[in-house]
Write a structure and sequence with these properties.
The chain is an alpha+beta fold. It is built from two helices and seven strands, in the order ααβββββββ. A hairpin with a 6-residue loop joins strand 4 and strand 5. The N terminus is likely disordered. The protein binds calcium ion (CA). The site of calcium ion (CA) has 7 residues, from strand 7.
Length: about 200
C-alpha cells in the first residue's frame, strides 16, 4: 500500500502536468495557425493523392510478366532466384546468373509499349560493365545504354532513350563488380510513356 501511494505521488504530478499542458498546446496551435483553415484541406488531399500516384508510377512495370530468357541461372540454397523474378513485380525477389561472364537477359513483351525509360534494380552483385538494347519488333536491336564502370550494388540505374514502341529488352552483362559472384537483379522495370 505504501509503495502504491509512493507510485501515485511520483506519477500524479507528471500526469497533472500533461493535463495542464494540453490546453496550452491547443491554444498555441490555434494561435500559430497549425490547424489548417477549411479551404486549405482540399489542396492537402490533392497533394497526398499526387504522392500516392507518384508511388504507383515508381512501381509500374510495363514489362511485368513478359517472357524472360537468360543465358544462365544460379539458384540459391532455397532453389530461388529464377529468371521470372526479374518481372514478377516483387522488389525483393531476384534473379542471379552463373558465376561467370558474359551473360545475357532478354525480355519479350506480349505487345509493344511506348516508353523512353527502363530502370534496372541491381542486387549487391551488380554489373560493372553492361549494355542495354531495345527492340520494336523483336528482331532488330538498338543500343540505348552503355555502362563501363558501375559501382557495387544494390543500386538503381535509370536508362533513358528516345520514346519508341518497345517490344523487347536485352541486357549484355559483360563484367561483374566481384569475380567471385554472378550478376544479380531484383527487377527490370519498363516505365510506360503514359506515366506522368
Ligand atoms: Ca523481383
Amino acid at each position: 500500500m505504501r509503495s502504491y501511494v509512493a507510485y501515485i505521488a511520483r506519477v500524479a504530478p507528471r500526469f497533472a502536468g500533461t493535463l495542464m499542458l494540453a490546453p496550452v498546446l491547443a491554444i498555441g496551435c490555434a494561435a500559430t495557425g497549425v490547424r489548417p483553415p477549411a479551404e486549405a484541406i482540399e489542396p492537402l488531399e490533392d497533394e497526398a493523392q499526387a504522392a500516392a500516384e507518384q508511388t504507383n508510377v515508381e512501381f509500374a512495370n510495363a514489362a511485368a510478366g513478359s517472357r524472360v530468357t537468360v543465358s544462365s541461372t544460379s539458384l540459391d540454397a532455397e532453389g530461388e532466384s529464377p529468371p521470372e523474378a526479374l518481372v514478377d513485380g516483387d522488389p525483393l525477389t531476384r534473379w542471379s546468373s552463373a558465376y561467370a561472364e558474359p551473360q545475357t537477359v532478354e525480355l519479350a513483351l506480349d505487345r509493344p509499349v511506348a516508353s523512353s525509360r527502363i530502370v534496372l534494380h541491381w542486387e549487391t552483385a551488380a554489373a560493372r560493365e553492361y549494355r542495354v538494347e531495345v527492340s520494336t519488333d523483336g528482331e532488330t536491336w538498338a543500343t540505348v545504354h552503355e555502362m563501363e564502370d558501375g559501382a557495387l550494388g544494390p543500386r538503381t540505374d535509370e536508362v533513358k532513350f528516345e520514346v519508341r514502341e518497345v517490344r523487347g529488352i536485352r541486357l549484355h552483362l559483360l563484367r561483374r563488380v566481384n569475380p567471385d559472384w554472378g550478376f544479380s537483379l531484383y527487377q527490370i522495370q519498363l516505365i510506360p510513356e503514359a506515366a506522368p
